[in-house]
Predict the structure.
Amino acid sequence: MKGICRLCDKKAALQESHIIPRFVYKWLKNSSGTGYLRFGTEPNKRVQDGYKLHWLCRDCETQLNAWETEFANTIFHPANNDTGKKITYGSWLLKFCVSISWRVLLFIIEKQEISHFSHKLHCANSALTEWKKFMMGCRLHPGHYEQHILPLDKIEQFDYPNIPPNINRYILRTIDIDVVISERQSFVFSKLGRFIILGFIEMPQPRQWEGTKVHINRGVIWPRDYLLPAEFGDYLMDKAQRLVDIQASISDKQNEKIRDTYLENIDKIAESESFKAMDQDVLLFGNEAFKKDNKRGRKGFGLHMLQNKVER
């Protein structure tokens, strides 16, 4: 279809572009043991892929694909195969992260999912403009609209209060997008399996985020201690609880399909990453790991949550 490219503003034949790159969904399906996905917004429907829109011309789509390929081959797949691996990145990582935050924020704004935060909309639009200029080479860096990346690994022990009993399944086995807006700060949240990318719209206290910033030219990602605001931990716990609520809303008919699929693929599932994440939750919580009504109250950011993508 013909239209105006969202990135270069040129009229062209528009390609079908993923909001979250296709390789992430492919990884989630291939490592699930069942090969099926469900959207958190419609948990009773099986899907094969993520959101796609005719947004970009061929040249811009090709450029974004190049950054995606670098991330997939240099960071995403190696880290999933070896979580202790030390990985060096180049200038392409900042461009990849900006491209993800830009797509997610633009997608949510166009769906009018943050209309009730209209007082912050001008800040969001400013971030979109600066990220776009950076991707097009009109800016050397995205300014104070920083990108941060947080690699995740399984939780083997904890002293955090009210932790949801599905925390490993959320941390290790979901794709999720969101815009978080509070009185103190605002950011775009993009979860690509074990990696969280944060694109900051407002960041009044950068010292609260230690070790996560993506640098302009080069840097290293490796297992280490990260300093994060306590509210962000609350936010992740709320996201995991949201996944509990989503799974509790699946109909009896669909749960029967899920059970049949598990039985048909029991050997694959026993060797899958999905089973490993579930097994870790069972080690931590026992039978609590399977409860569907764990309501755990926390105070954190003022939240707007869009969706989870989970395997089932």
